[in-house]
Design brief:
By secondary structure, the chain is mostly helical. The chain has three domains: about 35-80, no CATH class; about 100-165, no CATH class; about 185-310, no CATH class. Helix content is about 50%, strand content about 0%. The protein has helices at about 5-30, 35-45, 65-80, 100, 105, 120-130, 130-140, 145-155, 165, 185-195, 200-210, 215-220, 260-270, 275-280, 290-295, 305-310.
Amino acid sequence: MKRCVPFLMALLFAISCSYRSSATDETGQIARDLNEMEERCVRDRLLTGWGLDLEDLTRDLNPEEEIVVDMALELCRFDPGRSPQGSAVPNDQPQVSENLLVAPTVFDPTDEAPGEDPLLDALWEACGVGHPLSCDDLFYSAPRDSAYEQFAFSCGGRENMDCSLLLGVDQPEGALTPLTPPPGENEALDRWWNLCAEGSSRACGELRLIAPSRSLYAQFGTSCGARGTSYCTLVLDDDGDPPTLATLTPDQAPPGQDKLLDQLWLFCGDLDARACKDLSKFSPVDSLYMQFGVSCGGRAVAPCARFFADLDT
């Protein structure tokens, strides 16, 4: 048995090397399949802040570089003409494609899923029968300009509005209500909780911005005081912007602490709802990155895709 050990170790090493080589070959093949505009886009993104070039894809990349390359390839396939730094788009320009805006007239809740992706098909079916969170998940998971994205944005072929408000949210037993008392863990957050519970959209927004992510405080603020939507000004009187929002602006420079988050910051500031979503999801708890994503790039505490769509109207 001992004589077999060196052979097994050599075999494992060979398999490991083969895997790394095949992964690099696959990435290199993807890069070779780019058209001229996509290749130029990828080159610009890799050079911006990373000093990488397409030729670097032929060598073994570290995990952080692999993430950067994957992100660059994906973004450039979606929008090869976009600048890696992004540029501010005036609020009076269309922020959502016409395909999304006309989706309610194109789809019906009973339409069958396209059948191109099992996971997206499952979300499609759940959205079609009226699960608002599935509509949201489908929107942010779907390829741009796809039928999946259109169906999700229209809440399953219904209306272009906040799906949680349109369809309602199933509240599990013991869930929060506007009458739920504050947790009592932080005096300042408790005050904002009480004001949010009383119907202050300003307080709900502030609670979402300053409370620790995934905390009960943040959950209460995100749901507008347990009122079944994250778009507070649709169900509450607009009593002003949250105080913390005044410290954020769409053209504000990113903190510079993380290159990937900095890129998402720039895209979010440039009215990219998916980037805002990812920024709020993957940023460190209580960070400026998180606040910028939650506030749709320093604009409003709201579901960003809906908020950007409302800029058209």
